[in-house]
Backbone:
């Protein structure tokens, strides 16, 4: 309601501004401004992805897509208006009625584009599904349908205008907005369908962004030509009735439609602060084209993922209810999921867009970027899911053969504990130091800080609500600590690191060969302590830590932090391809 009222007021204000009598207003001025607004809109939409990913995404990902559209529009409009004022300093005299009617008409055009860009910009900010009372998506039996637009649908009109222009007057060939990002207004609203919950500290909203490299397509499959779509809207991995997929306009798919599936591997950077990758169907779009000038998009009708930690296999989860969000489980370095889509006849997949990250599905010649495997039936596909064969292209989180020449056999220093250890207690009475983020239990879930040792040691008398001395874990993970040195006492595994100077990626390995990255550390030089804990940014190499273990430093502490899956057995600690320690440690 609030957004609808604001849109109406803005439309009336901008329209009338150019119709009322006054210097610099009226028909001719309104026409020139409309041309500037039209060009500014094209510039901002054309630069949107590039500006957002290269300038704003690494700075403020929650605001990035909104700023990436709004700022280029505002700057280019201001510059164009300045140029027009310099080139055309005088007005054209016409009668008052013509000025009012003509000015208002062109003012209305400027209002539609300006308000449309504004609505899509603000809608791209991660406010959650409901934005100022505007929630245009219905969930019809799980199907996501965009059927509740604005009273004055400026966002839809603007999107459709530039889609049309991208094919004709502002044509850009195969990169046209109508082909590579169709129904932009709809995509903006769908991407706001994020997981959110209310807590004691307010609402927690999951991410609606991914950055380059945080996800990649590792496999593709489809129904065999001629096989009916309804053959693939069921699965024996889960006991539910067959689906009836609909497109975002609420239409069922016609005869001759097919199924397309993609396996996506999510890297650690795709995780939420709590350590899981959380995906909703609205945040995934399969963009396709039919012919050379028609593009459209669909959302998955099923997501394939692990049902629970250490399950025997993945499950085909149908989109058959409202607010379905599928999280990753466990603590492996990467998370792998599958997504299935219904495609109308003659549709050619172009891009998979996940949380605004574009993953091309075709090469520069328009051919599939990866080999597409075909299935004759859902039973055949299900057998591939159950056996794990469908995910053969993934598995980066597993390790191969390791060099064991320097390894020691020792459990010394390996423990499952979420405590900071020793006398390390952080005073949070005036807020967490550094960039540390705490959950409602005052546990550290992400961030980093540098604190003087004397300050940590003086906090033992603090009340529970005024101190932080634990790391947070999820329901299906545990915090593991590998202590290489504590106040100058170097463990056997620490001696190997100290002696060899290994500088690879630190990981622990379980008895199935699965690897778990170090997601942080505690390092002290005896005077200061550096704490880092970030599930989304694992330690890439040992030298990224504050300092290496040095034989000449007597007071060093170095504890590596991991978050492996619950109910597994760890068998070793490695740096790069070198095994440092062998041990047997159940994670319960």
Residues:
């Amino acid at each position: 309601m609030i957004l609808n009222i604001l849109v109406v007021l803005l439309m009336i204000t901008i329209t009338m501004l150019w119709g009322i009598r006054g210097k610099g207003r009226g028909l001719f001025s309104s026409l020139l401004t409309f041309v500037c607004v039209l060009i500014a809109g094209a510039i901002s939409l054309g630069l949107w992805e590039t500006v957002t990913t290269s300038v704003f995404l690494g700075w403020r990902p929650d605001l990035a897509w909104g700023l990436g559209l709004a700022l280029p529009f505002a700057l280019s409009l201001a510059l164009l208006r300045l140029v027009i004022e310099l080139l055309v300093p005088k007005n054209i005299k016409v009668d008052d009625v013509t000025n009012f009617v003509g000015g208002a008409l062109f003012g209305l055009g400027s209002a539609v584009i300006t308000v449309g860009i504004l609505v899509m910009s603000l809608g791209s900010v991660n406010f959650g599904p409901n934005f100022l009372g505007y929630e245009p998506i219905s969930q019809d039996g799980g199907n996501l349908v965009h059927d509740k637009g604005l009273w004055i649908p400026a966002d839809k009109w603007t999107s459709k205008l530039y889609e049309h222009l991208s094919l004709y007057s502002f044509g850009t060939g195969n990169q046209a907005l109508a082909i590579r990002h169709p129904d932009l207004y709809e995509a903006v609203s769908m991407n706001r369908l994020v997981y959110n919950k209310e807590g004691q500290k307010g609402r927690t909203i999951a991410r609606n962004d991914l950055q380059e490299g945080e996800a990649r397509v590792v496999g593709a499959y489809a129904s065999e030509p001629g096989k009916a779509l309804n053959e693939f809207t069921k699965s024996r991995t889960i006991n539910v009735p067959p689906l009836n997929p609909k497109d975002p306009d609420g239409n069922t798919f016609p005869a001759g439609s097919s199924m397309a599936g993609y396996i996506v591997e999510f890297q650690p950077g795709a995780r939420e602060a709590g350590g899981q990758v959380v995906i909703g169907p609205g945040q995934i779009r399969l963009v396709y084209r039919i012919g050379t000038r028609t593009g459209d998009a669909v959302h998955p009708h099923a997501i394939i993922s692990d049902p629970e930690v250490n399950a025997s296999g993945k499950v085909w989860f149908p989109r058959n209810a409202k607010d379905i969000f599928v999280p990753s489980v466990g603590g492996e370095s990467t998370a792998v999921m599958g997504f299935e889509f219904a495609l109308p006849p003659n549709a050619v997949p172009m891009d998979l867009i996940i949380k605004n990250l574009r993953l091309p599905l075709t090469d520069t010649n328009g051919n599939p970027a990866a080999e597409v495997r075909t299935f004759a039936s859902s039973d055949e596909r299900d057998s591939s899911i159950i056996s794990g064969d469908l995910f053969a292209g993934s598995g980066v989180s597993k390790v191969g053969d390791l060099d064991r020449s320097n390894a020691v056999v020792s459990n010394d220093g390996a423990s499952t504990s979420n405590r900071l250890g020793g006398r390390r207690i952080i005073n949070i009475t005036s807020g967490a130091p550094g960039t540390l983020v705490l959950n409602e239990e005052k546990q550290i879930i992400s961030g980093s800080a540098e604190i003087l040792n004397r300050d940590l040691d003086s906090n033992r008398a603090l009340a529970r609500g005024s101190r932080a001395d634990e790391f947070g874990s999820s329901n299906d993970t545990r915090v593991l600590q590998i202590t290489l040195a504590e106040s100058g006492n170097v463990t056997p595994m620490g001696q190997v690191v100290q002696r060899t100077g290994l500088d690879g990626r630190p990981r622990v390995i379980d008895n199935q060969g699965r690897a778990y990255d170090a997601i942080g550390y505690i390092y002290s030089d005896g005077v200061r302590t550096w704490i880092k804990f970030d599930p989304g940014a694992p330690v890439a190499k040992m030298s990224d830590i504050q300092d290496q273990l040095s034989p000449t430093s007597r007071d060093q502490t170095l504890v590596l932090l991991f978050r492996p899956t619950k109910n597994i057995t760890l068998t070793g600690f490695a740096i790069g391809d070198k095994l440092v320690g062998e041990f047997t440690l159940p994670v319960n």
Notes: Residues 27-56 form the longest helix (30 residues). Residues 355 and 575 are 33 Å apart (CA to CA).
